[in-house]
Amino acid sequence: MAGNKTYSENDIKKALTFIEIFDKADEIDCGGCGYKTCREFAAAMLDGTAKPSMCVVLSKKIIEKLKKKEKELRDSLFLNQEILDAVPAPILYEDIEGRAIGCNKAYEDIAGIKRFDIKDKKLFEYSDNKLYNELNEKLNASLLKNPVKQVVEADVKYPGGDTITIELHKAVFTDRSGAAAGFVSVLFDITERVKRSRELAIAKDTAELSVSLLKKMPSGFVIVDDRLTIIESNSAFAKLMGDDIEVIEEINPGLKGADLRSVFSHHQLFSALMESGEDTYSKDVVHNGKKMNITLFTIEKNKTAGAVFLDLSMPDVRNEEVRKRAENVIRENLDTVQKIAYLLGENASKTENVLSSVIRLLSENEK
Ligand code: SF4
């Protein structure tokens, strides 16, 4: 029972708001608090003999709200996990001590574990990849000192034994106060990229070496794109094309960027080969008063073509037998020449573009 003190309507109304009663309809007078009416309970609160927590209706409301919040939280966590599982890159998140909090499906696959089995465990407790475990520990220590995202390459093993190269992106995540709360790791499989980079580096070296060899060979060679722009050629080609072209070649070695139509009177042979998509074509032609044999070959269908020129007026080539043999040699080595030429052509520029992009990305990342 409330005391004898009488309170104003305004005081009672204010006290009722503590138990979330804001108008007359909310005053249900259930008696659950031990007072006959809500107003008596409000007066007791003003007396200091009752507390809001004694109102069972309010307690029920709070419990309902908490249940609703808990459900929302669970739904949100479930959604977060679903989103993480949809990410194809393996993701692991650890607490500040380096103990696993969770991971996504891709990480389960790569590590051969289940997220519930690694909870609260450090990496070395469930992974036998010593090098990677040490790297992870070093990164954690480094990130605590300097919480800037780190990107490193490492080799990891699949449970089946396959080794892959990964790019590990690791960063600190914080709590609401902004303090470091743990680490998040995202692993990108770059095995193919690394392999291709190595292959391309070797191919580029081979191409550069081959270019210098091609440039020194006595027969002329030229590579053009579909607009008949010269991509590469050698001095022997320029010599065959005439004195003027030979002079230009001295200023612009390889005649790069020059229009074949203004260099070679039978340029239409290149257009015809590229339009037909044929692999190779050979013909004797006369250009600049010189009889020559030209063997054209497709480098990239309808896009790039090359040709090897034999000066038939040369004493050692004049002999028909020798000419045939030379043609055979070219034919037999056509594959190699095509590969080299292909690397010199668009593919090499694509490769350079890709490498430049990677370098640019990495530079930006480092910044
Ligand atoms: S329990 Fe709450 S709603 Fe019920 S009478 Fe007491 S104060 Fe009013």
Question: Any chance you could write out the topology, listing elements then pairs?
Answer:
Blueprint (H helix, E strand, L loop, with lengths): L8 H10 L19 H10 L8 H31 L4 E5 L4 E4 L1 H7 L3 H4 L4 H4 L3 H16 L4 E8 L5 E12 L5 E10 L1 H26 L3 E6 L4 E4 L1 H7 L1 H9 L16 H9 L3 E8 L2 E11 L3 E8 L3 H4 L1 H13 L1 H11 L1 H21 L1
Helix pairs in contact: 1-2, 8-14, 9-10
The protein binds iron/sulfur cluster (SF4).
The site of iron/sulfur cluster has 13 residues, from helix 2 and helix 3.
Describe this protein's structure.
The chain has 367 residues and is an alpha+beta fold. It is 50% helix and 21% strand. The protein contains 15 helices and 10 strands. The protein binds iron/sulfur cluster. The site of iron/sulfur cluster has 13 residues, from helix 2 and helix 3. Iron/sulfur cluster (SF4) binds next to helix 2 and helix 3.
Broad CATH class of the largest domain = Alpha Beta
By DSSP (H or I, 4+ residues per run), the number of helices equals 15
Question: Which ranges are low-confidence, i.e. pLDDT below 50, for 5 or more consecutive residues?
Answer: 346-367
Tell me roughly what share of residues is in helical segments. 40-55%
